[in-house]
Structure prediction request, 422 residues.
Amino acid sequence: MTDLTSLTAHTAEELDAADPLRALRAAFVCDDPETIYLDGNSLGRLPAATPDFLGQVVRDGWGNGLVQSWETWISWSRRLGDRLAAHTLGAGPGEVVISDSTSVNLYKLAAAALDARPGRRTIVADIDDFPTNRYILQGLAEQRQLRLVTLRSDPDQGLGTDTLGEALDDDVALVVLSLVSYRSGAFLDMAAVNSAARRAGALVLWDLSHAVGAVPVELGATGADLAVGSTYKYLNGGPGSPALLYVRKDLQRQLRQPVWGWYGQRDQFRMAEEYDPVDDVDRFLVGTPPLLSLAAIEPALDVVERAPVTALREKSVRLGEFAVELADAWLTPLGFRLASPRDPARRGSHIALAHPDASRICRALRSEQRVICDFRPPDRLRIGFAPLYTRFTDVRDGLARLRALVESRAYENLPVDMPRVT
Ligand SMILES: Cc1ncc(COP(=O)(O)O)c(C=O)c1O
Prediction:
């Protein structure tokens, strides 16, 4: 890695020319040269091979094979899970399936984990975690009369290890955390959390949504128990693509999830009267997968597998450092503040910039400047770096257009009310 402190001494064009991953951008649809996309942490770009692959699944699989195609489709949740496990998660075969949404998988695994720790009455979570995670845990705590302890993490710097350590005792059944914070990008130490929780006898359920495909994840080596995560962000599986679900091999038979569907059933097509789940990770499946959305993960993985995750991480760190240097020089004087850890080792693949008018700036940036990032309350502009296709020139030009917009104050014409989707 070249000296990060002098990144801006190079032109963005030089950095792009020296980027070993630069050829991978051609594997994505990037038809509009005017638009700068810095939101791959929310919805990844469309892989160029996906439309034809889906067309083939629709024409040949659905059109010709019809119901017979389920003979192959039936194992895709598991087959694609194994591919994902090997390349991006540091997990073994038979530990990951792709199914349902991240929210639903989180519910299934959290409920299963609570059942596996009878007598313990506390769930520990992060007050600043993604809302769906908190809502699901609030629901579980209320339904089961458990105590939900929400840790006060720093909205910019993330959760301190001491804060977690102080909350762990022999009443804690489950700890739920995001490896990379959805807002600040703060990146936790998975190994440290796993061992602290293990010492307390609690299980840990990780949300990998903002991590998988962008930062190295070592579920096996760190002794992780459980994980879920999105496939439509850095993995580019497409809007609403089904989510990953990981359960460590030796835990699988000890855990029983709450939604007893036929996809988890032993000899599914024997249509037995009583629920009797299989012994492996398939027991965490529920019903028929959204096959076309699941299929889109195949060409997406073909692209992700072209680069080791260490190379993706290296480029992501460089893009982030480049952005931080430019933000310090151009945007801090205009009232922005870096609302993410400054140390790249403690950050995932996006940064947040706080500004009192971030919501309107974000909207005007899209409509006036054709730069796409997103807004997260209370006042954060979130800027993502997808190492498979984001260029250093995108970062420079995106931030230059942001600077020009804020200098012109053109965003002040927009209504203050937030739109439905930000
Ligand atoms: C960190 C995190 N967890 C969970 C979710 C929820 O995912 P889904 O809506 O697919 O259930 C999201 C969605 O963006 C997310 O960012």
In short: The first helix runs from residue 12 to 17.
